[in-house]
Amino acid sequence: MCVFDAYGTLFDLSGISRSVRAELGERADTLMRVWRRRQLEISWLPLRPGAGADFWRVTDEALDFAMNSIGLDDPRLRLRLMEGWLTPSPYPEVVETLARLRAMGCSTAILSNGSARMIGGAVAAAGMADSLDAVLSAEAVGRFKPDPLVYNLAATHFGLAPESVCFVSANAWDVSGAAAFGFQVVWINRDNTPAEKTPQGTRATAADLAGLPAILGG
């Protein structure tokens, strides 16, 4: 059983910044960096009383912060940026790797903080629906990763003990949270982060998903 984080692991968010580079130039990368960081910071805060785990709202609030930080006020551009989260492109090796894993008899799933609408849109746009056994969203339990309730979604959905699940993420905080829950965790180190900064609990590391079948014995 192989469970994947979505953003930065399966889906490449750099396409969102590229889509507005003609208008923003180098500021597009700055905007995306601040936006993504603020998005995660908000998701790590305690949820407001009565509020659910709505990652679309979190993403929307984070975009306001990021645009204000670079003095940008453009409603049409803002709409395009938000819509980019519905159709991010998968990394080049993703589709082939999922096919190889399934040929090995390995079930595959996504477990993401993204709302069902966001993740469903991304999977559909990439034509990946037939390559996944489940697409699980944190909104189902009203929490965000790294809350253990979110990781437990995958374990209970497939009726597996945590140690029977290989969790794959490119986000260090997600790796640590999943390992603390009890998953066997593979860190996708796309940024070539030095080895001494390996996230806590990492059982294996790969530069991208292409190396995953070999790690799992395929």
Automatic annotation (TrEMBL):
Coiled coil: none
Cross-referenced CDD domains: HAD_L2-DEX
Enzyme class, broadest EC rank: hydrolase
Catalysed transformations (reactions): an (S)-2-haloacid + H2O = a (2R)-2-hydroxycarboxylate + a halide anion + H(+)
Transmembrane segments: none
GO molecular function, one term: (S)-2-haloacid dehalogenase activity
Name of this protein: (S)-2-haloacid dehalogenase
Lineage: Bacteria, Pseudomonadati, Pseudomonadota, Alphaproteobacteria, Rhodospirillales
